[in-house]
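STRUCTURE REQUEST FORM
Protein name: Threonine dehydratase
Source organism: Montanilutibacter psychrotolerans
Requested output: structure tokens
Priority: standard
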Amino acid sequence: MSETTPAAARVSASDVLAAQARLRPYLAATPLLHAERFGCWLKLENLQRTGSYKVRGAMNALLAARERGDQRPVIAASAGNHAQGLAWAGYRLRVPVIAVMPRNAPQTKVAGVAHWGATVRLHGDSYDEARLFANDLAAQHGYRLLSAFDDADVIAGQGTVGLEMAALAPDVVLVPIGGGGLAAGVALALKSQGVRIVGAQVEGVDAMARALRGDVAVREPAITLADGVRVKQPGVLTRLVLAELLDDVVIVREAELRETLVRLALEQHVIAEGAGALALAAGRRVAGRRKCAVVSGGNIDADVLAKLLSEVRTRAPRRPRRRSRELPAGVDGVLRPLAASASATASSPTPIMPAAPFAASPGEDLRA
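Status: completed
Returned output:
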């Protein structure tokens, strides 16, 4: 694909709407939760099938291929979540799947891929080494190579996360960025509604932020807890979309990421992996009346989580300021209870479930 190809010619908001229609029989909408101590709403994609938003793009890509009559086996390189989502989608649609994963991929994710019957090939020590090996296998055997992020069908599937957030009417949405598939899809879904889209990357793992500034030099990414966004080269298509639609990128320090993940677990009882906590970690630097951060995944190794909980000491959150509104004299008995009730409702931590049918249970007949 040419670097000058308009992004709109490859993927658009209408593709995201089409993906939502395809996915409705298979995937339930995930809840929105108000994290009061963070002053931010959370889109809980850690509760998605296979524990990550990645299953959306994978399932949409397989369904779209079936519509086009493409019945080839599918191969993909992945640090874990894309492979798990693709394995689940392949199992549901009876499509053979081969997943190439780095040797250092979390065992939780490797086991999740194998559970759904996909063939797992461990190769290399990074996502990019696994990607090159997957490219070779696809060329040798005629497999369909499905990028974890740089594919129009994948981007459109990930964009359904944004459509489910629209009912909240956020003014700012925070999204983690690795290759850029999730951020591009969410931007396509929400930008036309005037929502600011802010990406989050880790210090030393900021290939997309540098590419958007014009720095396309390939550098080895730093070791990070957020293995799901540890990408050496961002997508070409995703970069075109984000160059048009992304408002800002926040670079998060590793220590901030670790503390946010632990606070999520202890204060909000939300288990996130490193990349899953990244958007919320960036949220403290972004102002907004109604911020919403995507918790992109929850597939963290138990040993890693236990180590973080034992080592990371979080700072006590600031006490919230008590806000009160002056009411006209003589109407306290009527308006003040109503105001208090409205305030309690606005700060309630009860999750919001967007209207969508529940996913079918294993064994049920699933149809596109």
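Reviewer notes: The longest helix spans residues 54-68. Confidence is low (pLDDT under 50) at residues 1-9, 326-348, 355-368.
Form closed.
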